Amino acid sequence: MIRGSTALVAIVGSPIAQVKSPENFNTWFANNARDVAMLPIDLQATALGAFVDNLRGWRNLRGCVVTVPYKQALATQLDGLSERARALGSVNVIRREPDGRLLGDNVDGAGFLGAARLHGFVANGKRALVVGCGGVGSAIAYALGEAGIASITLVDPSAARVGALGEVLGNAFAPLEIATRYRSLEGFDLVVNASPVGMGDSGELPLPAELLETLNATTLVADVVTSPEITPLLQRARERGCPIQTGAQMAFAQLGHLGAFMGVTPLEI
Ligand code: NAD
Fold it and tell me: For the whole model, what pTM was predicted?
């Protein structure tokens, strides 16, 4: 029940009907007797500036989760950013301070690592292949860097995106080895698809089928795609005996990070 006293959080993007955060958060708020509710907002791009002004003045709003396509645009309009959000140039969560200032963070990578930890993955000293160097791939690569990974190989059809992410990682994590070439998947401890390839019923693989034959059974294979839950990549990896991590597991592991940043849940939920 939303009452006059209810504190609000929001999730903004466009489209918005597909997002799972409102039901996940509202279930948690109800089960834990919190007088807080999450509203989905499908925002037209032309209203973004006015929206930010409204967030500053919206006194019973604690924060706002940010999804596609506003993660980059909103990062330029806030009053403060975490170090990782500044380095990545994107936010996926905003906290409204009591004085109206808006602070941004990006916890996509923290969610990914939290889920990977549940699979026993420890990044320190390991080697990872990150396929897709857009918003989410960059956040995952940055979190791996923060966690002390030894080597990251970047793959993306856009050379500009590979170059930009390589520069961000190189500036932030000096000892990190950054590569763009590889012949086999044998040497990787983690292979993650951070591109939309495999979404829906496309049946597409983000890496050539013959290359997937070189996967070690000990490699953690992860996908950010949430639908289908078991993507064609995860299906192949499972057939090779690899541990797999789904996009839904990553999304779920983010909830506590998003809620804690907005001050409406503990970190572990
Ligand atoms: P984006 O558009 O910023 O980046 C996607 C990148 O993938 C681009 O750089 C593109 O060039 C690259 N790409 C496309 N085809 C490729 C291929 N064949 N091989 C390698 N790279 C390829 O998008 P984004 O915001 O990073 O989102 C990516 C996906 O992550 C989306 O499907 C989104 O739904 C999903 N996502 C999942 C979660 C989660 O918690 N599971 C969170 C956020 C986003």
Answer: 0.95
Domain with CATH 3.40.50.10860 in the chain: 7-106
Q: Is 20 a catalytic residue?
A: no
Q: CATH class for domain 109-249?
A: alpha beta
Position 269 scores a pLDDT of 87
Catalytic residue (one of 71, 84, 96, 127):
71
d(CA 159, CA 269): 39
Q: Give the integer Cα–Cα distance in Å for 120 and 132.
A: 23
Cα 121 to middle of ligand 1, angstroms: 22
pLDDT recorded at residue 93 = 98
Work out the pLDDT band at 142, boundaries 50, 70, 90.
very high
Does CATH number 3.40.190.10 belong to domain 7-106?
no
Q: Is 208 near ligand 1, meaning CB less than 6 Å away?
A: no
Name the token pair of 17. Answer: 């009907």
Domain with CATH 3.40.50.720 in the chain: 109-249
Q: Which among 21, 156, 161, 212 is the best mutation to test ligand 1's pocket, defined by most ligand atoms within 8 Å of the CB?
A: 156
